[in-house]
Design a protein that fits this description.
The structure is a homodimer of 678-residue chains.
Chain A lengths: L10 H14 L4 E9 L4 H13 L9 E9 L5 E9 L4 E7 L10 H13 L1 H10 L5 E9 L12 E10 L13 E2 L1 E6 L4 E7 L44 E3 L7 E3 L2 E4 L2 E8 L3 E9 L2 E15 L11 E3 L22 E10 L5 E23 L4 E18 L2 E10 L4 E9 L3 E3 L9 E5 L2 E4 L1 E11 L7 E9 L12 E7 L4 E3 L8 E10 L6 E6 L14 H5 L7 E5 L22 H6 L9 E11 L9 E13 L19 E2 L23
Antiparallel strand pairs in A: 1-2, 2-3, 3-4, 5-6, 6-7, 6-8, 8-9, 11-12, 12-13, 13-14, 14-15, 15-16, 15-25, 17-18, 18-19, 19-20, 20-21, 21-33, 22-24, 23-24, 25-32, 26-27, 26-29, 28-31, 29-30, 30-33, 31-32
GO molecular function, one term (chains A, B): primary methylamine oxidase activity
InterPro entries (chains A, B): Cu_Am_ox_TPQ-bd, Cu_amine_oxidase, Cu_amine_oxidase_C, Cu_amine_oxidase_C_sf, Cu_amine_oxidase_N-reg, Cu_amine_oxidase_N2
EC number (chains A, B): 1.4.3.-
């Protein structure tokens, strides 16, 4: 069966694309970074999807692959290129030589080179020897992008390694080396694969100067182990928590057909690519179009320690290297509960061979409390229903940190994009007994530096059609007067967005962003149909505007961006943020086009931040910090779309009196019975 | 067994208190509004709790009841009084004559008087006759407090009735009469129990004037039924949603002993009183004190339609009448899922007789997604745990609206106070074909008026002890300079609150409220132990400052209030907001005391708002709108307190391929197996 235009490339297709490119560069060696589906241009895909939904004959869509690779000239020269190839015809459709100002995304092999180069570097060995590590400790090198200040003047390609000591006496490869930060950062030139220098890190506290390399020997002696794997916990896992099981004895309510998912009036496709992770396409509810595409566009994590070389710590966790290799296999853990469907992805592995990345996306239903309720107090008749959600989730690990992303669809026509930050905070060595204004000592000798996580979610609306208008709606007080004699009136103001621009959150004005179809009115209210969300006032990028960190992450400085659709314009910080000097081809450039965006193919980008000043409770692994964007229908439907959800009593719920048999002072003698909800 | 000082009064104790008061007023008739526990003064209760926690002999605490009642002089005079009586000694301890400027809280009998008075009123019958209701329709009167502009100049006590038509031809007492709003409001003098006037309501739209009483006959002809009870749904309940069951085969992890609840290091008491609903007391984690008391203090729902008499619509859903009679019996519906423990309350019913209000509070565990996760990418070893929460929940129905309140305790030491607004929006009649800037037409002929819901949660911290300091912490950018050469530094500023005051949210500065113990330092970080929350920037009261609505709800104008503890100072809008002219004895008065609050018995009040401009999807019953306050430990613990939560695979979770048997394009052949989490 032919793949759907939005299906990711199979292993076979990926290798076919690779072979096409190799054939075009037969005189050179080629190293493939990534190969994945080049999503069809919207003008074409719209036609296809419209035909698909209306049962018309389907137009043919070229099946194209985006190939990102290095061409090696054999004399040490490396050129970054991209080719779009047509898998069926075997021809190249587009050929891009990546301009030299840009750095192609990082790859796992380059991380391995760094680790090997460090292992072979005398420069590094000497630096370690100065440290006098305790017996039994070996060095762990954690490769990082070399970001924050951009590349150097010659635009060399570097990687840096954050270093830790691992206590091998624990005889466990998962003992937590982050508890033993080493004050060294080796820097590798990616072209020569050589360690060109080893930065000595300051380890002082509040009383020490900015340049202070206290950097004494015995830097780990005051550090303390902090394990999280259960077999290394001092007292083992707790035994008090009783099981809580979620089951669906009649199976799930969703159906899956390839990438097509249907559930309770929702119909959409899930995709996966190694740049963005899970993507959502062609979202319909009761046969009406809602969203063309949803995705996590980018995130940046700038660190706020001013001491050299820490300003170089600024990851772009999607753009630096794509998240393909960072995506968790969700079967290996306990990431989902209940009845679960997994989806695989395809990513380039080593040696120009693609492989299946199994279980990178999971799908399941979950209960999220009361959906709606009303009791007629006269008759005491209560009707209450549960809010069931359908969750599409993926999780990425970037070195120390984890991010859980979920698209949640609910019974009332709402879509929530949820982010959870967890994992291990980034720590650097600090002298014994010292504290620092640049972070918090979360473990003896380990300073967790202050930083921010700023995310951008891309929303491509298609509310009852592909041409929408973004309207900013606010509620404002009104002075007392003839129109407001009692002073209780407030007025709702609506301002359509005419030109591409950024907009900040303003919850004090109840500023709501509506994605409106100007040509479709709700038959009940007479107002235009729309979907809306309230951008949350969160703190955005704090770095100074002229700083490298701010220049590279201009997207991170405003809460909402409104742009006119352009094919392949998906990445808030641009296509090549790795070691960038400035954000290029991202949102700041997009709005400068000053496009007319009213009643057009408009795209909305939602940005939110988490300023993270670590607390001791974040150690050794932080409890998940949650943020949500709630997309909700606003006059899209003619009533609550979940009004017909059954309100049966759930036969599996039971009463309890708690573990002891006492009554409440005013309490009932609870008996085992049935209560709860469907 | 003697009751705990925080246990609510039993039926017997309530009647005993009543009899004591009756004995003191033997020459008069007394009508009791409410009788409930007068919580012990904090100076006494602290001693008791400290002794309890340390296993010392318990001091004796008087068992006192707060009785609120009317004394009728037999000549039509009614005086509102309160007495605190000692149940054991039988003596009155305090006697308060409620000042005449205040109105005692409303009671259900008064609501019945209104309904009866309307039924007997010729004035009202004539007004209805003008309307020419369709055949088969009867009038439903929904009693409301008479608020918004305060009482009249003589400070008469009034109630108003919102009127609707019920279609009796449906032969169902729960057919939705809100779909048929009648443009009449009868007003009853509560003393004489007579209908003194019938307000005719404007029914015009945007083109009509403020005073427009279009008010034509046949006002219901263009209205359309909108039922929510399943037997009246046009197509019945849907059958596609499959069951999702939550079970705990080994029972719950919590234990209950009277009002005492213990769960995963948490230990606290749950109380219930008819003013505030469920309250939380004496919260400890791993034997350390966290909170003295948590409660929902007040909420106000002001309506923003400027046309007379709509400015009178402003409910104080806790303070107007207490929520005792409004509290849902949670067994009658499907409000909780899983293994559930219910608690009863005691409230005054008719004829000065108390009764048990069964199942007004429920307790259960629930899963809330991933708690924490880390994967060592080198070994692929993933450790992931689930975030389990313990939920204490109660639900109130105020005429058309429902509010669900939940206190949620999690495994990482966090406490969340969650509010869900659901139920039926308040609608008024609007002429056919018209729309209005004052709201949204959600059903033909039914205009849902714009309004706000503003809530106040009272937090009485006891972080490692009863004397705490509130510290405001913010993160600010720093100019480029010698201390910030790369421009990436931001600084964290902490300002202790010295005097009682209000503070607004400022998420742009990452303004965080910390409740700190100045005398206890975290041994790892050296910083003071604390609990914190980030006040969310939400829109607060929009009514003009000089308006009745704003004067009465001054608490609703700022996000955070910090006051010095005073016994019985529990109610943000004061003790008597019903028909008040101005907020008295609420938060605005409390901060005017200008008390010294640093390192003292300080109380924090969190205020948040939901500006509700109704959408058609809110009809006929609105999907729940959710808000949360997240209290989180900050350097209170020496590590993540949930690090030892087991990460076992959950044996009840299963794989599925979805309802169809196809593979994903890149999909795996899911087989029935086991995956998921504990």
């Amino acid at each position: 069966m032919a793949p759907h235009p939005l299906d990711g490339l199979s292993l076979e297709e990926t290798h076919k694309a690779r072979d096409i490119v190799c054939g075009l560069h037969s005189e050179h060696n080629v190293f493939f970074r990534e190969i994945y589906l080049d999503e069809p241009k919207k003008a074409l895909l719209r036609k296809y999807l419209t035909a698909e939904h209306s049962g018309q004959p389907l137009p043919s869509i070229p099946r194209q692959a985006l190939c990102q690779y290095d061409v090696l000239d054999g004399k040490g020269g490396v050129q970054s290129q991209e080719s779009i190839v047509d898998i069926d015809t075997g021809k190249r459709v587009e050929h891009i030589i990546v301009p030299e100002e840009h750095h192609a995304s990082l790859s796992i092999p380059e991380f391995r080179y760094l680790v090997n180069a460090v292992a072979e570097s005398k420069l590094f060995a000497d630096a370690v020897a100065e440290l006098k590590l305790p017996e039994g400790f070996e060095v762990v090198v954690e490769p990082w992008p070399y970001d924050g200040l951009g590349a150097d003047e010659e635009n060399n390609r570097y990687f840096q390694g954050l270093c830790f000591g691992r206590d091998t006496r624990q005889n466990n490869p998962d003992s937590n080396f982050y508890a033993y930060p080493l004050p060294l950062i080796p820097v590798m030139n990616a072209k020569t694969k050589e360690i060109v220098r080893v930065d000595r890190l300051p380890t002082g506290g509040d009383q020490d100067g900015l340049q202070d390399e206290t950097h004494k020997p015995n830097v780990l002696d005051h550090c303390v182990g902090a394990d999280y794997v259960p077999e290394l916990l001092p007292n083992g896992p707790r035994t008090t928590l009783k099981a809580l099981n979620v089951s669906q004895p009649d199976g799930p309510s969703f159906s899956v057909n390839g990438g097509l998912i249907e559930w309770e009036h929702w119909r959409f496709r899930v995709g996966f690519n190694p740049r963005e992770g899970a993507t959502i396409h062609d979202v319909h509810f009761q046969g009406r179009s809602v969203m063309y595409r949803l995705s996590i566009s980018e995130m940046s994590v700038p660190y706020a320690d001013p001491r050299s070389p820490f300003p170089r710590k600024q990851a772009f966790d999607f753009g630096d290297g794509g998240i393909g290799s960072a995506t968790n296999n969700l079967k290996l853990g306990c990431d989902c509960l209940g009845v679960i469907k997994y989806f695989d992805g395809v990513i380039m592995a080593a040696n120009n061979t693609a492989e299946v990345a199994p279980n990178v996306v999971c799908l399941h239903e979950q209960d999220n409390g009361i959906g709606w309720k009303h009791t007629n107090w006269r008759t005491n008749r209560a009707v209450v229903t549960r809010n069931r959600e359908l969750v599409v989730q993926f999780i990425i690990t970037l070195a120390n940190y984890e991010y859980v992303f979920a698209y949640k669809f609910d019974l009332a026509g709402g879509i929530t994009v949820e982010t959870r930050a967890t994992g291990i905070v980034s720590v650097v060595n600090i002298d014994p007994g010292k504290t620092s204004a640049y972070g918090n000592v979360v473990s003896p000798g380990a300073l967790a530096q202050n930083h921010q996580h700023i995310f951008c979610v891309r929303l491509d609306p298609a509310v009852d059609g592909y041409e929408n208008t973004v309207v900013v709606e606010e509620s404002h007080p009104v002075a007392v007067g003839p129109k407001n004699p009692a002073g209780n009136l407030y007025e709702v103001r609506k301002t359509p967005v005419e030109k591409s621009q950024w907009i900040d959150a303003a919850a004090r004005h109840n500023r709501v962003i509506k994605m409106v179809n100007q040509d479709k009115k709700n038959p009940i209210s007479g107002r235009n149909v729309s979907y809306k969300f309230t951008p949350v006032d969160t703190q955005l990028l704090l770095a100074q505007p002229e700083s490298g960190q701010a220049q590279r992450a201009q997207f991170a400085q405003h809460h909402v961006w409104v742009t006119k659709y352009a094919d392949r314009e998906l990445y808030a910080a641009g296509r090549y943020p790795l070691s960038s000097k400035v954000e290029k081809g991202g949102l700041s450039d997009a709005v400068k086009r000053n496009d007319e965006v009213a009643n057009s193919d408009v795209v909305v980008w939602s940005v939110f931040g988490l300023t993270h000043n670590p607390r001791v409770e974040d150690w050794p692994v932080m409890p998940a910090e949650v943020h949500q964007i709630n997309l909700r229908p606003a006059d899209f439907f003619t009533a609550n779309p979940s009004i017909d959800v059954p309100s049966n009593v759930n036969s599996a719920s039971v009463l309890t009196n708690g573990s002891t048999a006492a009554n409440g002072v005013n309490g009932s003698n609870g008996t085992n019975g049935h209560a709860g909800c469907h």
